[in-house]
DNA sequence: ATCAATGCAAATAATTTGCACGTCC
DNA sequence: GGACGTGCAAATTATTTGCATTGAT
């Protein structure tokens, strides 16, 4: 579908080209944000990223982080997962390809599941009048912890399934 | 994974049993909301549902609609799709099975794509320490309308891809 | 020099929550 | 009779927006 980049260097280069092609500016903020995202293994959210940047003494407003993430999503470098109403995560697209997400609708925990079959299915896809860029798959259910907990709870106020 | 109901009657019956089993009450509000959902072909959201109910002279608060939908999701009768940050839809689970969703990240339009391969893949899935109940798959990209529009626009403020 | 990018604070809007009242078991 | 369910209004919170300032080209 689109870029398949596996290191910070080529990802940064790709982003630079993207910015140039679209007449957008290469700001320090954008560069540093992408660098930090490349260091993260797995999911991240805006607060987490903001925290990382602060920890590195790099001060950015949340607004700019949202801005940068939107840009990175347009550039197909970052992917957004809204697992539930309250659980939103982002992920480097290169890391996201080829796995699906098992989401517990009780505790909101998410487990990555690698699947060649899903990966193949996504690259095979042809859709009329539509240019696909990225696909994701979610499986909702109950994790073993919650299943156990629910089986042993008399009755929980709002969490009963 | 779970119930595969294709008419309002059996769906209503299933819901009644679910409520009884879980020590919850069979209120008129819950019954009527499910009946209305069963009439909808395709996606719906809270406002749409509320509008339908008002049109039938059945007055319910949004809070109760949210409550009922959560219950129906727990009962695996309704499924939630958060296509983008701003685009959220619900769907009867029986209608949702076996198709995936092609979402244009430009205009937010959603197209249903039937795929036996996806359906088979979802029912085949075995995940360790996890009891799957429902799976959904999203393909993000650009629809032909937006592709055309973007190719012909000089440069659009925020929508450039 | 120009116009886009940033930071800040205020606005937005979907969803959630607390509480008083009605109703199902 | 005693919870549970409902309606209302207020609270919450992630994301967006407007505007003055800074910075990239």
If you had to describe this structure to a student in words, what would you say it looks like?
- 2 copies of one chain form a homodimer.
- With 161 residues, chain A is an alpha+beta fold.
- Helix content of chain A is 44%, strand content 22%.
- In chain A, strands 4-3-5 form a 3-stranded mixed β-sheet. A two-stranded antiparallel ribbon of chain A has the order 1-2.
- In chain A, strand 3 (99-104) and strand 4 (110-114) form a beta hairpin.
- The longest helix of chain A has 14 residues, at 8-21.
- The A-B interface holds A 1, 22-23, 73-74, 80, 82, 85, 102, 104-105, 111, 113, 117-118, 121-122, 125, 127, 129-144, 147, 155, 160-161 and B 1, 22-23, 73-74, 80, 82, 85, 102, 104-105, 111, 113, 117-118, 121-122, 125, 127, 129-144, 147, 155, 160-161.
- Strand 5 of chain A pairs antiparallel with strand 5 of chain B, so a sheet runs across the interface.
- The structure holds a DNA duplex (25 and 25 nucleotides).
């Amino acid at each position: 579908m689109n870029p398949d980049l596996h290191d910070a260097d080529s990802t940064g280069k790709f982003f630079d080209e993207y910015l140039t092609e679209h007449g957008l500016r290469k700001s320090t903020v954008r560069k540093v944000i992408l660098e930090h995202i490349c260091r993260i293994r797995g999911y991240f959210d805006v607060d987490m990223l903001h925290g990382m940047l602060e920890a590195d003494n790099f001060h950015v407003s949340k607004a700019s982080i949202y801005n940068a993430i939107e840009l990175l999503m347009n550039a197909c470098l970052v992917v957004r997962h809204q697992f539930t109403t309250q659980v939103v995560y982002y992920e480097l697209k290169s890391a996201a390809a080829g796995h699906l997400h098992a989401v517990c609708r009780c505790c909101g925990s998410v487990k990555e599941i690698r699947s060649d079959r899903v990966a193949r299915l996504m690259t095979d896809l042809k859709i009329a009048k539509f240019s696909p860029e990225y696909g994701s798959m979610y499986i909702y259910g109950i994790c073993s912890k919650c299943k156990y907990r629910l089986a042993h709870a008399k009755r929980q106020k709002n969490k009963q399934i």
